[in-house]
Amino acid sequence: DAFPAAPVGDAAFVSHDKGAATPADLYFVAFPHGKAHPFVHKLAKKARVIDISADFRLRDPAAYEKWYHFKHPYPALVKSAVYGLPEVYKPAIRKARVVANPGCYPTSVLLGLLPLKAFANRLSRDIIVDAKSGYSGAGRSAKINLLLSEGYGDFTAYKVVRHNHISEMQQEASGMFGGEARIAFTPHLIPAPRGILSTMYVRMLEPVSADELRAAYEKECARHPFLQLADPDKVPAIKQVNGTNLCLVNAFVDEDNGLIKVVSAIDNLIKGAAGQAVQNMNIMFGIKETAGLAATPIVP
Q1: How crowded is the C-beta side of 101, counted as CA atoms within 13 Å?
Q2: Calpha distance 213→112 (Å, rounded)
Q3: Is the pTM higher than 0.90?
């Protein structure tokens, strides 16, 4: 229904109940949080599944009651699902029956922090995240604050405590840094249709030089086709990644305050959702990881 006047090739819309009955090697499930798990459970019996909701992102089934307010009915499937951040879990994704596609904010945050694992014993695991998202991050529901006439020219914070994405950020950052990480996360809504810009503040327990930091980011980014390091002293911007599956990052040493500041930019609809799902599919089926995802950014 999104593009009723723009058919693409021979593609035709098939409702989920009919589509689920059609034999396939892989299903993408894109129901709201708390509504996807019965479909994933059913489909995983006969095919591989990539779930774009949060229903299988957390490894502890009990955590769903705290963060998503429902008791998970499929704890065994939760524990066997693989968190679908390719830059971290590619070997496991190749073999997975169910892949839990990460959230958009966590993708921007975790990829920005990933190269810092090289300094895990020199950094605090108490991390502050200040993030901004375009309107599309809130979906397409009819909400007054998402109307163009209401939001244009405005800039607001929302859900400033216990945002549900904190759960997966802390889960994954803890594994990345080898100990319990705490994330203080504040999301903001900006008057743009798409894109996420996240800034992470990480306190140094021991000094890290600018050269060391740059070298660590260069090394990590060279390993991943969609993690790209900005030029020295350049700050990523959402227009540089819109329409692409890229995460553009850069990191800076703030000596005056004893901090490392990391800035990352993604398109929340591509690397933050559907593009990452396609990337995971490519990995699962041994297809070239970049297949179908090599796009030129939309400018302006």
Answers
A1: 31
A2: 12
A3: yes
CA dihedral 31, 36, 38, 44 (to 10 degrees): 100
pLDDT band with cut points at 50, 70 and 90 for residue 22: confident
Structure tokens at 114: 């990933």
Task: Give the sign of the dihedral formed by CA 8, CA 13, CA 14, CA 19.
Answer: positive
- Residues 150-178 as b/e (b if ≥16 CB within 10 A, e otherwise) read ebeeeeeeeeeeebbbbbbbbbbbebbbe
Token duo for residue 283: 């990995």
Does residue 300 have a cis bond before it (omega within 30 degrees)? yes
Question: What φ, ψ does residue 51 adopt, rounded to 5°?
Answer: -100, 125
Tokens of 100: 């839990």
Catalytic center residues: 104
Over residues 113-156, the pLDDT tens digits come to 999 999 999 999 999 999 999 987 666 666 666 666 676 788 88
- Distance, in Å, from the CA atom of 273 to the CA atom of 268, rounded to the nearest integer, reads 6
Residue 149 contacts by C-beta under 8 Å, 6 or more apart in sequence? none
Nearest Cα to Cα of residue 202 among 131, 257, 127, 115: 127
